[in-house]
Amino acid sequence: MPLQAGIVGLPNVGKSTLFNAITKAGAEAANYPFCTIDPNVGVVEVPDVRLSNLATVVHPQRLVPTTFEFVDIAGLVKGASRGEGLGNKFLSHIREVDAIVHVVRCFESSDITHVEGRVDPLSDIETIDLELIFADTDTVAKRLDRQRKLAKSGDAKIREEVAFLERLLVHLEEGHPARRFSMTDDECFSIRDLHLLTLKPVLYAANISESDIGSTDLTLVNKVRELALIDHAQVVVICAQVEAEVAELDDEDKQAFLADLGLHESGLDRLITAAYDLLGLITYFTAGPQEVRAWTIAKGTKAPQAAAVIHTDFERGFIRAEVVSYEDLLQAGSYVAARENGRFRLEGKDYVVQDGDVMHFRFNV
Question: Are 97 and 6 in contact (CB under 8 A)?
Answer without folding.
Answer: yes
